[in-house]
Amino acid sequence: MTEGVPRYTAREAIDLVTSGFTELPGPVDPVSRPSPPGEVGPDGPLSWQGYDASRARAAARTGEEESVVCGTATIGGTATVLISFEFGFLGGSLGERTGDRLEAAHAYAREHRLPVVSLVATGGSRMQEGMRALVQLQRVARQSTLTRAAGLPQIAVLRDPTTGGGWATLGAGADVVLALPGAQVGFAGSRVRPPDTDPAAYTAEAQLAAGAVDAVVPPAELPGLLGLWLHLLSRPSAEPAPPPPALADTDLPATGWEAVDNARSPQRPRAAAYLDAYLDRRAAISGDRCGGTDDGMLCGFGVLKDGKDGGRTVAYAAQTGTATRPAGYRTAARLIRLADRLRIPVLTLVDTPGAANDAEAERQGAGAAIADVFGAVAAAGTPVTTLLIGEGGSGGALALAAPDNTWATPDSYFSVIAPELAAAILKRPPEEVRATADQLRIRPQDLVNLGVVRGIVEPSKSPS
Question: Are strands 21-23 and 68-75 parallel, antiparallel or unpaired?
Answer without folding.
Answer: antiparallel
